[in-house]
What does this fold into?
Amino acid sequence: MKKTILKFKKVAIAAMAMVLAVIPMANTAQAANFHDVGPNLSWAADAISTVSSLGIMTGDLSGNFNPNASIDMFEMVRIFARMSGFNPANHTPAQVTYYNNVFESRRALIEGFQNNFSTWNATMNREIAFLLYRGILTAADLNNFVVMQGNTQTRPSLTREQVAVFLVRFMGHTQQAASVSGVPLFSDDNLITPSARPSVYYLRSLGILNGSAGAVNPRGDVNRAAMAMLVDATLHEINSPLLTGGHPGSGSTSNNNANNNQNNQGVEAVTGTITNTFPSLRSVLVSSSNTAHNNRVFALSQNALITVGGNNANFAALAPGMTFTAILSGTEIVSITATAATTGNNNNQTSNNQTPTPEQMRTVDGTVARVNAANRTIGIETRHLNPRGDIITEIRDYTFTNNATITRAGASVNFGTIVVGDLIVAQVYGSTAYIAEVEERITQMSGRLVEKDFSASSTFPTITLEDANGNTRSFTVNNQTTITRGNQANINSRQLRIGDTINLTADHGRATQIQAQPGTARGTMDVYVRDIFITSRGQNFVTVSSGTGANATEYTFLLVDGHVDAFELTLGSRIRLWFDSQEVIGVHLLQGQSNVNFTGQLMNVTGGQLVVRDSNFQTRTFTFDNNTVFVNSVTGQIIGLNQLQLGMNLQIVSAANQTNRAVSVTVLGN
It folds into this structure.
């Protein structure tokens, strides 16, 4: 069919939540006659017409579209599920099996969040599971559906930068977004969350997201009219088959639509026996009574659901001789359920009389899910992240040899002491266990808080304790954890400080009760900034010294998120910091700082000059020469001029008598 040519035009209307416009296709279906979509919404009328006629976004029972209403994560899920072809109506039996498998694979993860909130919209769980499977949602995104504000559960509105991330994932263009360059910066670029910045600028490069008056307002809410515009433009950008009456993956889509390469509408079932496997191709050769499938090689999609013997498994568990039932999407297997092999032997197993070397063994770290004392077999439940960031739970059985080494609390125990619920770390080869260390489900530990992780990639906040013997262990924290610190009760995990002394009780590695005492009293300290460390997890550290001489004492502190911005500090400056244990909770710049003149974003490099813009959008030009030192603050290593990139945040130290000549340039981050 002839490809429709799209043209983008600039629309300048102050009421728009996001500015974008697409000239409609000549055959666009007429919109339902919404009462509240009048001449004042002419800029969005065509988009509203498209998304409503496709059933992606609908109005209310009163005939209103509610264009100015904001969108929460649950409504976003419904929109993206419909865009991806998920429709709960008119399922074939194969589709029912497919969707059920997708839901069951993510059910425990979703319900883990649902059980914490009475306002969770459980009717959307199947759509949430589907978007997790497709990679449009990640497990970390589930933290944003319902949040606690004090004692109140709220559903936060979808922000502009969030919808940009979801649209890029829907398109399947995450890698393209990561490499986009040469796009003019928005005037409020510093407000864009770093992880969302590639998606925002990628959509700008496509003309989908242009902002208003040079600003994008990344953390502002997206209203329904703006969402309709974004959805409409994205569907046209990928030439979605929905626009021509098809379904994603049905064969009528453009090859540009990378996200729709899995056909969830045209699925079909196939049964038979695996006759051979090809790990390098992630494919299986099958025999089947259906001549259309017999003696065919089928590839498994990268996130195919694999079940062997009733347990979640990976491709390596599939073997010749297994009977199976699979769901095909085009020529790819997206779900396969296989029996345990009835013929052949595990080629990975050593003989019964030969113990594998430590190098041959692998470590299984999980929870005892079942115990069969008769054959010395236990089922170990483990959790891991797939390439899309989803948490996958699986249970596999391992048989302990008669002379297996089993310890608990450092002492040798026998197999009969292992019970369901124990935490276990086993050294296994194939399906045989040779060494195991077990501990009770309920754990108590005392130690010093040495690390905490609240990054977006963490499903739950994580804290790490170090005991008196130097042993460390990490625990997750959730909304059900009871936390006290000193005389403060019912605090959240972000109020714990590195250096605190902690008594902790945990259940399956998740903290249920934390009692913390500040490591040192709160106080102030006048110091010089010696180094700044910007970590990939958003945890930033500063090293300071009590003086400038060789005998000055150095200290390293964590900068408390939301209290102190590392990019506001300058190397060599003299500051007064307020500390709590080993964390900085406040900073004040003192007089007598060194010759650090500027901290800001690199805008241009030309002819021996650097042009830098600060957070107030004031620019300044510095000269540099062969004596100027360029340093990466994360690695501490000297770098070359060719490693600078536009948009990087820099700190520039000038010469004492030449305030526009750069003596050193430190790269703080992108």
